[in-house]
Fold each of these.
Amino acid sequence: MEVLYKDYFISDDKIRINRQFVLEYLAQSYWANRRPPERILQSIESSHCYGVYHNNNQIGFARIITDGATMFYLCDVFVLQEYQGQGIGKRLVELITTSEEYEWMTGVLGTLDAHGLYEQFGFQKNSERFMSRPPQGIIKHRENR
């Protein structure tokens, strides 16, 4: 998947992921700052990853863990602070959560500060940190009856 959004390029081509960039960002994040770098690199290799790029520089990232059939876990979503407020993160989450690949799966994620973003895509808060959403394909199917 490759999508142009404004001046930004979003891709799920794992070869494009700047692993050092991801390591440095996650080392400063509240959710992954205790993960050893080798674990982060292993998680990238074992997940479906998305990168956001501006002028060939990576500015954002997201990762999906899935069984490929019933559920996905959306994690490590970020856009550099200087690029926030332009709809980039929203477009990234939209591309992921509305893809046919995940449409029939239950989605789960954890966040402390971005509930409003994820609620736009059907996620509901079920604790202070975790959110989930039912498979959107089922909802669409029921609405079309």
Amino acid sequence: MTTPRDLLIVTLDVAPIRPLERGDLSLALAGAELIDLVGTEALTIEDERIVPGLCPPTGDRLLDEAAASFVRQPPHEPVGDWLWRRGRGLSAAYLDALEEAGEITRRRHGWLPLRAGQAVPVDSPGRRHATDRWASDEPVLATLAAAIGIREEPAEDAAGAAGDATVTVLAAVNDAVMELEAERQRRAIEEAAYDNIWRGQ
């Protein structure tokens, strides 16, 4: 199991403290990929840019795709830009991967047998790994979960022991999620104003 897979299982298992947005989850999954790849020496982060390193196969198709997507020529891509590029549709890709691996199932409605139901984790070693990591308040998983509203913010500097590169990625995820929320609020205000014009208000 990887950090992105653990994070996705946690989002399916734990009631969020605010509504979970798919775009937020995709950004956090991309950040989780970067953090795992830092651990395999597939990249380093210099001046908040991704500098590719060794790219040994990880054994995980999605992580290998992430590593293959790095810009290999200077100037290297900023972490935040890569999160936006990689994150597009990533939550759906991870849901599909977990379903293919038998880690989740779809809860179907009896009266809608052809409609895909809610994704539910099955009892598996992967789920138990994610649950154990969650229960231990593992700093990286806890910080990613807090960024997308699955839990309250962990203790200050909780992820600091994980290293500078990890802290940089976690900060970039948090910034991207806040930027996406600001964009959602801006669009909601514009739509409300447009509706008011049509109502003659």
